[in-house]
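For homework, think about our next protein:
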Amino acid sequence: MFVPIQLQKQIEEHGRPFWGPRAGRRRVRAGQAEECRGRKKRQRAQVLKRSDGVTLVEIMAGLVVFGILIAASLPAFRNYMSTQLVEGTVNRFAVNLRLARQKAATEGNNYMFTFDPATSTYRILDDNNNNSVLDAGEIVHGPFTIPAELTVTNGPAVPFPGDTLLFFPNGTASNTGEVTISNTRGFSRVLSVVRSTGAVAIR
């Protein structure tokens, strides 16, 4: 059988010629492997491109959007903080009055609440001898200050007759009345005291 010299060299070097079905399969597999390597290179390039970070234009655009959101939410935030200031002040006011009523009942002597409109402050006197006067050895709690941003109004529906309120050992109070605490945005809370029970309520 005649075998070409070039084909004979291929058989001697590799055991079989580079042609026929097997050679075709090898060429197909080699092409697939090359395509797979190329696809992986492109994927790595895309990952590297995405991990390069953001540009200055993107940073500036984000800052602009952030500034717009802050500017839009600032009025609502201020209104919320002003509302919370009223709520916190009224709650502290009520807690102090309720504590004075409780102390009067447990200690067996009067507790006197005094409000000073000029300074927007109030004090609570542990009146041991029940004479409504600060004597030596008696304890004064306070002064407690109403924030300057808030307004305290006596009443208006049921104003207290004066700036002094007494809590007695039997749990009652000297007067019935209410005060209104409000902010500049029109939000307010009313704190009331009932003479017959000494109960303190917020509405």
Observations:
- Helices lie at 5-14, 21-50, 56-107.
- Strands lie at 110-116, 121-127, 140-145, 151-154, 164-167, 177-182, 188-193, 200-202.
